[in-house]
Amino acid sequence: MDESKQKERDRENKKREREREEKQHGRRDDNDEKNPRMIPIRKENNLTREDAELKDEEEQRRLGEEIQKRRRRAQELLEYFMRKNEEAKLAMNCGYGVEELEINDFPQNARWRLTRKETLAPISEWTGAAISTRGQYFAPGRIPGPGERKLYLFIEGPNEQSVKRAKSELKRVLEDIMKQALQNESHSGRYQVL
């Protein structure tokens, strides 16, 4: 019995809420008798047609200004990134240098000496270029697969001149190593030819 009383109270509360909403929104639709749901009608805040047009024009002007502001900001960002891109290109073209020196086919002793820190560090300090070992060793007759490279020294520096100095110094060191190797081979035999 309590449940039925509760349901009846709920119905009455809903009915009162509907009546309150009807009073707030003004009038009901003619079909209210058939359809108990209320259709709210909004008031126009007592604006005349001219006031509404002025309000619309103002809103359009404000939106137009906002769009223009965003376009200007987008243009500024585009110009900024284009300027930075040009600066990066200039730095790459006129200031930055890169060279490679392949050492894969030289004897093991020469490769070992050229890739040691004790050999590369003084050259890097003197020329200002960074030297790193890249690729991998391929035995004679073995062909590198796709994406593979033979052992080489990668030289990069702040300008072309420092890179060229580093490469020429590496070549000089390589020649010295090869001369020493040839001298050691000629003296390494047990007998000498007279």
UniProtKB/TrEMBL annotation:
GO terms for molecular function: RNA binding. CDD domains: KH-I_AtRH42_like. Residues 99-182 form the ATP-dependent RNA helicase PRP5/DDX46/KHDC4 KH domain. Residues 1-61 are annotated as: Disordered. Coiled coil: none annotated. One of its GO terms (cellular component) is nucleus. PANTHER family: BLOM7, KH HOMOLOGY DOMAIN-CONTAINING PROTEIN 4. This is ATP-dependent RNA helicase PRP5/DDX46/KHDC4 KH domain-containing protein.
